[in-house]
Amino acid sequence: MDPNALARVAGLIGEPARSAMLLALLDGRPLAAGELARCAGITAPTASRHLARLVEAGLLVPQVQGRHRYHRLASPQVARALEALLQAAAPARAPRTGPRDDALRLARSCYDHLAGRLAVAMAAHLVEAGALALDEDGAQPLAALPGRLAALGLDPAALDAPGRRVLCRPCLDWSERRMHLAGRLGGLLCQHCLAQGWLRRRGDSRALQVTPRGAAALRDWLGLQAWTQVVNPPD
Prior knowledge:
It is a single chain. This protein has about 240 residues and is α+β, with helices and mostly antiparallel strands. The protein contains eleven helices and eleven strands. The strands form five sheets. A three-stranded antiparallel sheet has the order 1-3-2. The chain has a two-stranded antiparallel sheet with strand order 4-5. α2 packs across α3 and α3 (about 35-40) crosses α4.
């Protein structure tokens, strides 16, 4: 392990403008340099210099589409590192400072999977249904998992797609301080909810809006008591 390499990456992330751009990319969508400049409150030339350093360090990768050049996080590992830093930087109790914060706590994207109260409730439901064994060290699918996914309208065969990515991994939710799901399973649940129109992206925010159709479907799947705790959490 090279402590100098760690120090270089920490220094890159620790600069406020660069950290703002990295956090803006946490929902998994690539953004253009101008969009990232606005997120960081800096000029486009300054943003370009910051982005070049982040690409050189392997934290971002550029993505060219026609005449447009976008940037995205280099890997799920980078997203996990940023989420871990958010967890370390968060106060013991997240302050309720306004509607935007409430929306982020309810449901948000965490790179390619779900986070927030909804994601935590989905993970807890799978555990309680005997579909998943989950703790801070790992996650293990159980016999009931295909049935619970099918009940949500998700084809369990999608879990068998080839690839090196781990099937399921616990991810500590920085606002709820409980586990939600990452890995292929977490990504599939997120993609399914978006594709069904149950969740809708909210502009440039990581917050995800639960649609009326989504509220009905997720309430039926989670059960009324669990759903009530998602939308009306105890103080």
